[in-house]
Amino acid sequence: MAPIPIISPINVGHIDDVIELSKTKPDTIPQRFVRDITERPTIATLTPNKAHIITTPANNHHHHMPIIDFSNLSKHNTHELFLHELLNLATACKNWGFFQVVNHGVDLNLMESIEKMSNEFFMLPLEEKQKYPMLPGTIQGYGQAFVFSEDQKLDWCNMLALAIEPQHARNPNLWPKKPEKFSETLEEYSREVRKLCENLVKYIAIGLGLKEEAFDSMFGEAVQAIRINYYPACSRPELVMGLSPHSDGSALTVLQQAKGSPVGLQILKDGIWIPVHTLPNALVINIGDTIEVLKNGKYKSVEHRAVANENKDRLSLVTFYAPSYEVELGPMPEFVDANHPCKFRRYNHGEYSKHYITHRLQGKKALDFAKIQTRNAF
Ligand SMILES: COC(=O)C(/C=C/C1=C(C)CCCC1(C)C)=C/O[C@H]1C=C(C)C(=O)O1
Ligand SMILES: O=C(O)CCC(=O)C(=O)O
Ligand SMILES: [Fe+2]
Questions:
Q1: Which ligand is nearest to the CA of 369?
Q2: 0.90 exceeded by pTM
């Protein structure tokens, strides 16, 4: 009997693999990747609904993302040094929502190996990568995520996304068998990044005057996922978006940009898209939606995006660290009072995750799920 075709409940149309496109037709940008004029990366949003064209995104050089030296927090340094770095961290969370961490404790050789193997994976023939397909409406495997309709514009990016923890969330069929040792290395890398996340949430809590275990005990058995993004060079980068603007649905996100990759990540700060220049061996951390909610909006999950480059491919490895699907969350009572009214309702994180992954990336829209709408006076 002929196999029964799997009919997907959603029709997303044909999705070109951008790595193949850039190899076989380097000068072609299919219409599905060409952004409407108001969504192109050369437009900076200054006020909602009002776009201003600037020639280079973020030509403002007084913007320097904070750098946190993790060894000042974790080693047995003087108490003064510890407090100084803790204050830096709290200020970075409050004013930026993004920072870079140096001396983070993740083994540099492991970072190099995972980068090398990820590059090798993306360079495999398409048939090999398609053994691990990200089916429409799902978020694990190789392909394009967050595509829900035929007329949706596509990102200039292919990705491999996998659940890491808890173990039962994994789909072992989607863990690549090639290159050799990729899966083991991914496992080892994820263990080290998890330790960093556990420590980060601990120091963020202390910096807020909370008990060090305040966040972790609230998160339960934290969910961890990895998304490895590959942005091939694009002959018309001004027409496409590497990764659509979004905030992360996690508590924290850890981003490793591969050595030799061009600048690509941009964050929306004070209404302007500014490029992130990563230091060698540093990891870029950002506060996700969960911490914005717990801190009742005082720490922001900052909107960011990735742009393509005309000449060079770019690779980034992104770890999402989030609460267990079981937990109920809302602003912590410590951060709600008469002057700081409660901005978010309580919700179940599993439901938030479901909401996040069943909608296309659209700036900070996902958090509307939990926002308490305030009525205008008029
Ligand atoms: C393509 O995937 C994502 O961008 C993404 C997905 C993460 C996830 C998996 C790949 C499998 C396990 C579930 C999970 C949703 C964590 C983004 O992650 C954000 C979105 C939410 C919600 C989150 O917690 O992190
Ligand atoms: O590639 C990047 O720099 C950004 C990736 C990102 O924001 C994400 O995967 O959520
Ligand atoms: Fe992101």
A1: 1
A2: yes
